[in-house]
Structures are given as structure tokens and as C-alpha cells.
Amino acid sequence: MNDLTRSRSGSRPEGRRLPSYFDLIEDELRRRGGGGEGGKKAPPRTNVGMPSTGRNAGAATAFSRANGNNAVVVKVLSYGAGAASARNVLAYQSKEEKAHDQDGREVTDLTAAVRSWEREFGNRNGSKDVLRLTYELESTGREQVARALSSLASDGFRDVGDTDRTYAFSVSESMKGQTRLSFALVIAHEKRDRSDRSSHNRIAAEIDEVHAIDSRVDKALRAEGIAVVSRYPVEFSSGPKGFTAALHAMQRGGAEVTLSTKTQIEERPGKSGRYHQGAARRELTTSDHKQLTAEGKIVAALMRTRQPRDFMHLLLSGPANVDRDQFILAGRDFLKEQFSGHRYAYAIHNRNDPDKHPHLHVMVALRNCGGRMLNPNIRDFTEWRTRFAEKARERGIAIDRQKRVERAGPPPVKRWEWEIFRRMGATAPSNVVEKVISKLRDTPTAPRLEEARQRLGQSRRSVGRVIQMLEGIARDRTAPSTARELSHDLSIGLQREYRRLETAVSEGRDPTREKGEEHMLRSTPISTAQAKAAKEALATTATSVAAKIVNPTDRLLFEQATKIIGKVVGLQLDSRVVKNRERGEPSRGKRPSDGLETKSAVGRDHIAEQGVVNKSSNNRSVDASRIGRSNAEHDRAETDRPDRERPKAQQRNREMPKSIKLRPPQEKERDRSR
Description:
BirA Bifunctional Protein, domain 2, 5 domains, Relaxase/mobilization nuclease domain-containing protein, Endonuclease_MobA/VirD2
């Protein structure tokens, strides 16, 4: 157990509304049959506050996962370069048991092992981050050189305006009575702060760039009356250590080194200092070795550099309740097959502690015996995870290739989340409480990635069916015109909306937080009969399409989608009916205006949609009988009207012209186009 675990067991604030960690573990044991009423009591706590895990491997696994460990892991912890880094990793590997190399031999002498490892390193140089120029000048003073370089810094080192770079120089006497100038310039990108990820201000270590910088330095020196006698070969340094080494090289012979930079540390009360690049330069002149080292680290903190890689520190981890010996053999088989031709060494940690996850620390040389470099990426890690799982299953260990998004296990809990829960209890944020409780109870979660793909495919099929149905209605000339135009508009809107959400998913945005867009729909007024006919047409088509879907899940999704479409259709049609009434829809019982009922955006409405009987005919006798019946009904209505309504009718008749009885149309005036 680590110190954090001990602190958890001994710090239980009074009045906590949620149970403590160990109470939850005991509750879980009772739920599984290990305690509670009518059963045995939970096992007593040990001196570190954890119940015995000999009979309850599940509780041990839950406890181990609650401490931040994963079920199975294959990942790179770090990369290293040089003999010193290799020795540190080998020493860390061997802190519990002796490490073994690729031939199965035990690594007993670390010094000899480091020497053999160093022969395998490619001695690659890192990125060239510091330019070092050395000049022989005519005898001159330090103040003149300082003024010349200061004017160059205010003007620009590579181009005009390149004024933010850090530089250092020292002036010393040479053997011929001349003055030697050692000048170092940071050509790597210096970040504004540590969060800066850009690298646009980097100068390439090429001969043309060096000549340009050298000419500007020469021009600045001659402007102060300093003549350059000769030049030494150009040198480059790499990384923070290279910059510090350049400062120390200038200091040889007791010379003072002047460092000019805009990088500084902002002091914050109660917090650590913040590295950032200020607006004004600060200069430091010293011959103290330690002070130069400290200032070099400050400048290097904001220097973007690329260091060489000679080896990688790999971690192979498994669940807590695994057979340790078989796990080691599986890891050995995986390393022998995957890194054949590479030098590597591995050691086991947590072999005899059943409460913790066993894991192998492996150091692998990136250059194989043939000189080929290994540059692992995310695809390599996925392949390694798959092959390691295969080797484990061959040894009887029931693990599978797993990613965090695919694992059917509790969510990972960070240390700060655990500390918030431990200190605040139920007052902690709800998402933190849920994650910690799931981790403590070892509550598995369903794999998310595959289910997400299935849901995406089902929704794509469902939306496709809805769009296909709407497009079919829009092309059907026998369907009501209102249904055709509305289906056409909805199909276009659905396609645009679905493409927009797919773009959000592909770009990593949460589609549930995307704000929908407004799509144009028709706003021309329609009658109630037209709205009713359109609703019936869409409902009938949706029912017939749903009956043909064989898969029950797809049919349910389609029905849910059409239910939403039905609501949208109802709101749209009702709003258009209201607009018709606002424009003066005729009262019920009288024939509406032909301009509102027979015209639409896609043409003349279907006759059945108008809600009136087609009374046109080519037979004059039929027209005459129809007109006669109409006149008789009009006369009978006047005589049968109650006495209390007659004054109102007489008053209305004074304001309106008298009704005109219909007469059969003449033959020559008849509109046969109806």
C-alpha cells in the first residue's frame, strides 16, 4: 500500500454523508454473500486498512483499480538517450528483482550492461538549437562589443524585427594580443509560455542562414569601429544541456559571460513561478558557474527542442488477480517475438503482492542489429496490445485486447478526483462521485466504441428510410400537393442536418451540443381540408413502410423518427391553416375561395384534397337540375327561418345586395376548360 492509501484509511471526516471507502468495500462483500444479516461478518481490516483478499479477488481488483491502475496496459512510459539514462532505467527495473536480457540472462553488473547498451546506441544528434560563433577581433574593450550586440538585438539577428531571441557572449584575450569574442544565439523557437505549441520562429541550421546571421554580426561590430580579423568554424548545440554547455564554454579562463534574454519567471504568491517571455530584455553578467547553470535552465524551459532517442521504457501490466508466473512467461514470449533483433531487458514488479497489479518494466533499444530504427506510433501500440493479449491467452490468462473506450470496466479515476471525493464526500461534483463509486464497487460499463458504431449505422439506416419515404411522396403525382411540397422540403432539411451532425462527429465535437439550423419551409396558406389530407397521406405512407421493415430494432427507430416527423408536419400544417384564417378563410358551409384552395407551390391541388364535390358537367340537363335544386333550397330557407332571426336578416339584406338565383349558363359562354 502506498502512503496515499494509508492516509485514506486514517482520515474519515465526521458527519460524512457518504460511506467511507472501506465501508463500501465491506458492503460490496456482503452483497456478494460474504456478510450481512444471516451471514458471516466481513473480514477484519489489516493494519493498512484493507480486508484480506485471499478469498475475495474481486475486492482486491476493485481496490487496485481505485488506486488508478488499469486492467491491462501496453504503453511507453518514456524515451531516453545516452548511457546515464540507460543506467537509471536499469537500476529502477532491478529494484525488486534482477532484470533479464533478450537472451534470458540475468543482469547482475549494471556497469557492464550499460557499456554493452551504449555500443548499440546510434549516437544520433538532437535538433540544432544553439548557434555558436567565435571571432578574433582587433584589441577592443568589452563595452564596445556589448553596445554592438545590443544594437543588433534591437534591430534583429536574422532579419529586421527578429528581436526576441536569447543570446550570450564573452570577451577574452587571445594568444596574439587580440580579443576573442564567443557568441551564442538560440535559433530554436522560444515559446511565449509553456502552453505555446507553435514553432514558426525557428531558424534552420543551414549554411545560408548562418552566413546571413554572420554578416549582420559583422556589420554591427564594424558600426562600432570593431574590425573582425578571423573566424573559427561554426558549432551547434542541442537542447537545454547544449545551451548550458555553451555558457560554460564561454566561461573558460575566468571570463565573464553576459546573458541577454526576454525569458523570465513571474513570481506568484502561494504558487510556483510561471515561465513566460516578457516585453523587455534583462541582462546578466557573471562568472559564477552555478548561476550560469540556473539561468540556462530558465531559458531552456521555453526552448522548443527535439532530443535524440536511443531506447524506450515500455510497460506491460495485467489485472491484479492474474497468475504471476504465467503473466511473466506471456510477457517474455511477447518480447521475444515482437522485438526480435533488438536489445532489451525486462524485470517484474509486484510479483508477490496480491493487492497490486503485476507489471513488467522493459527497456528496448530502438536501433536493431541491422541498423533500422524503431519509431512506434498509435498503430504499433494497438498491434502490441493485440499480440500481448494473444500470448496471455495461450498461457491461460483470460484477457483481451482492450482500449479504455472499449473496456467493460469501471471508469478511470484520477488522483485529484479521489482527493476531492475523500475530502468533500457527497458535496463533491456529481460526476466525480459517480466515477469514484463505480470504481469502488467495480461496476462494469458496456463497451462504448462498438455500440456507438452500431447506433450510428442504425440511425443512418433509419434516416435514410425516412428521407426515401419523403422523396417518394414528393414524386408521387397522385398524392396531395401539400403533402408533396412538404415532403420535398423536409427531405432536403433532413439531409442537410444529418450531414452537419456527421461533420461535427468527425471533427470531435459533441453532436448533442450542436445548435440546429433553420431550414426553409413553405408558408403559403392552406385550408383545413388540405392539411388533413396531407397528414393522412404521410401517416399512411409511414405505416406501410414500417410494416415492410424486418429488423425489430430498425423498425422501432423508424417509427420513432416518423413520430417526430409527424409532430413537425402537424405544427407546420397547422400554422399554415392559421395563416389562411388570418387572411379571411370563408365560414364553414360556404365554398372557399378558389385562389386559396386550388393553388399551391407545386401546382393545382388534387380534387380530393379540396374537400368539395366537383359539380361541373358537360350535360346541360344535369346543370339545370342542379341549379333548380339550389334555388329551391334557398327559397325554402327564407320561409322556414324563425321570426327572431328575420329582423337580423332584413337588416343584413339592407346592407348586402339581394341574393341572385343561379341560372343555367348559355351554351356559348360556358367554360368547358373546368
